[in-house]
Design a protein that fits this description.
Largest sheet: 6 strands, mixed
Radius of gyration: 18 Å
Number of helices: 9
Shape: globular
CATH architecture: 3-Layer(aba) Sandwich
Strand content: 15-25%
CATH superfamily: Ribokinase
Order of helices and strands: EHEEHEHEHEHHEEEHHH
């Protein structure tokens, strides 16, 4: 490739490292790569985890996060930024300050509560999300537990989802995508509401698998990737759900307990077609 050619467009993920490789920054980078884009990363924290759960979390210093952000933002051509596990108010503030003048898509996956109900950030970080980061977001992608926490309501029905999404728009976000996968009656059903008042349900086939580690990270990363390629938000969500469904169809057990989605599902399909 000629050195005078423009740089390849990239997607940046800002989040935590999953030592088991099934979620977090690792899942995001696999998704970006599988969708044909260069993935870059800024680590906010390091987790010690495996298929059995998370045993330790250690935050990266804000100074280190700032240096990582500066290194990427001053050099790479970014079509979108996706945030994941930010862990503390100080980290949310650091990232919000840096992204305040970012002029491309910002997809915020507010990693706060896992499907199992585990709290994944400090209590004071929720207020920082609402005040500082959400107003910068093109899209936020909470699961139903996170949406309930942020909107201060319980969610058990589709009507509850729509109410919560409407409340979340009050934080100044561009659009809200509430993911319903945490409840059996809402599995495969995600609701988009834009600040123009346009609401739409996206429904995909329910796949009965326990191996769902990394689903939330993968979906939001895919949306960021598809937005980078030029798709509309609606089309990006539709294609991301298709991508995630393929990954869930071939989800696998990689340890002693539940496993993760298969980020190389489409690559496996290509090999099987060739052989």
């Amino acid at each position: 490739m000629s050195s005078d050619q423009p740089p390849v467009q990239s997607v940046l993920t800002i989040g935590g490292s999953d030592s088991s490789g099934g979620a977090g920054v690792q899942a995001d980078l696999k998704t970006f790569n599988n969708l044909g884009l260069h993935g870059s990363s800024v680590l906010t924290c390091v987790t010690a985890q495996n298929s059995l759960g998370v045993s330790h979390v250690e935050a990266i210093s804000c100074a280190s996060i700032r240096h990582q952000l500066d290194a990427v933002l001053t050099d790479l051509s970014l079509g979108a930024v996706k945030t994941g596990m930010l862990f503390s108010a100080e980290i949310v503030e650091e990232i919000s300050d840096t992204l305040n003048n970012f002029d491309a898509f910002i997809v915020v996956d507010p990693v706060m509560v896992s499907r199992a109900g585990s709290i994944l950030l400090h209590d004071d970080a929720v207020a920082s999300y609402k005040k500082l980061l959400f107003p910068l977001a093109s899209l936020i992608t909470p699961n139903i537990f996170e949406a309930g926490l942020l909107a201060n309501c319980s969610i058990s029905t589709k009507s509850d989802v729509e109410v919560a999404a409407s409340r979340l728009l009050d934080y100044g976000v561009g659009s809200v995508l509430v993911k319903g996968g945490g409840r059996r009656n809402l599995a495969g059903q995600d609701y988009l509401l834009t600040n123009q008042g346009c609401g739409k349900w996206y429904v995909s086939e329910y796949l009965d698998t326990p191996h769902t580690h990394g689903t939330g990270c993968t979906l939001s990363a895919a949306v960021a990737a598809f937005l980078t390629t030029g798709l509309t938000l609606s089309d990006a969500i539709h294609q991301s759900k298709r991508y995630l469904n393929k990954a869930l169809q071939q989800a696998f057990k990689f340890g002693k307990s539940t496993g993760c989605v298969c980020h190389f599902a489409s690559i496996q399909n290509q090999f099987s077609m060739q052989n």
